[in-house]
Design a protein that fits this description.
0% strand, single chain, rod-shaped, mainly alpha, 1 helix
Length: 89
């Protein structure tokens, strides 16, 4: 009877260690996956900021172009006999 009881306790301890190790393995995997997910999220946030910055600069440039175009149509430059800047006659 003592032998059976001893073996049973040993098997329960062994089984509990195996289950504990499996559980810890799952927790490690979850932890690693969460870290990878945070890294991906931060990369996406950085890319989003870059795209937003380019978009905002593009809008500002389009406004400036539109303002210059409207001004050029309203106030044409005087005609002169000299060629435009940078061109050789």
């Amino acid at each position: 009877m003592k032998y059976l009881k001893k073996n049973l306790i040993y098997l329960l301890k062994k089984k509990s260690k195996i289950m504990y190790n499996q559980f810890m393995g799952i927790l490690d995997w979850i932890s690693q996956s969460a870290k990878k997910l945070k890294d991906v999220e931060s990369q996406i946030n950085e890319e989003t900021k870059d795209v937003l910055e380019v978009y905002q600069k593009n809008i500002a440039l389009e406004r400036e172009i539109a303002q210059r175009t409207v001004c050029a149509r309203r106030c044409p430059l005087p005609q002169s006999d000299s060629p435009p800047y940078g061109q050789v006659p």
